[in-house]
Specification:
By secondary structure, this protein is mostly beta strands. The protein contains 2 helices and 13 strands. The strands form 2 sheets. Strands 2, 4, 6, 7, 9, 10, 11 and 13 form an 8-stranded mixed β-sheet that branches. The chain has a 5-stranded mixed β-sheet with strand order 5-8-3-1-12, with no helix packed on it. The two termini are 15 Å apart. The N terminus and C terminus are likely disordered.
């Protein structure tokens, strides 16, 4: 039994570490999320007030050329300022504070299977939790339950990196968002039975 435990323990540790190691890039096609780096490797961190930081609205694994997008980006929780928004050469015709209906004259460049749709420079006014949500545009596009992208004369429905538009896609000073499709401990343990 002791010998068996020595064999099982390293496998268990690797299995438990796997979700953390694989959590970097969103694996879904046409999935939007807020990330803390342009490669989509971090969606949570701790930040002090009055220290500006940059967040990235990314489209992961685009299904085709993308020249525009429509969504709402909501920030909920701690008091904050958005110091700057960069639409990466696009023009926004949605007049609402959270809404984006952005188009470009040429497709966005794809770098490492990611498209940076926008960047936001944010500054907290207090040390408290701030959650980021990517939600469908208002009004919604057809039957799309989430954000949309435009390219080659078509509209594509997108998912969000948290798996649900009602769950945060990124968090500052809080618990890290987890994709609802992530494996549970029981599912991982079941692989080794």
């Amino acid at each position: 039994m002791k010998r068996c435990l020595h064999l099982f323990l390293p496998i268990l540790l690797v299995a438990l570490a796997a979700p953390v190691a694989l959590a970097g890039l969103d694996p879904d096609t046409d999935s939007m999320g807020i990330w803390l780096d342009a490669a989509g490797n971090a969606n949570c961190f701790v930040e002090a007030p009055f220290a500006p930081f940059t967040t990235y609205l990314l489209l992961s694994h685009p299904a085709g050329p993308t020249g525009g997008f429509a969504c709402r980006v909501s920030l909920v929780g701690a008091p904050y300022f958005i110091l700057a928004t960069d639409l990466r050469g696009g023009a926004d015709i949605d007049a609402s504070a959270e809404g984006f209906l952005v188009g470009r004259s040429s497709p966005y460049p794809v770098v490492g299977d990611q498209i940076v749709l926008a960047t936001f420079q944010v500054m907290l006014q207090a040390y408290a939790q701030l959650e980021f949500y990517v939600r469908p545009p208002v009004p919604p596009y057809g039957t799309c339950p989430g954000p949309v992208v435009f390219g080659d004369g078509t509209t594509r429905c997108c998912g969000v990196s948290s798996g649900d538009v009602n769950l945060p896609v990124a968090t500052v000073n809080g618990t890290c968002p987890v994709d609802e499709e992530s494996l549970s401990f029981g599912a991982i343990k079941g692989l080794y039975r």
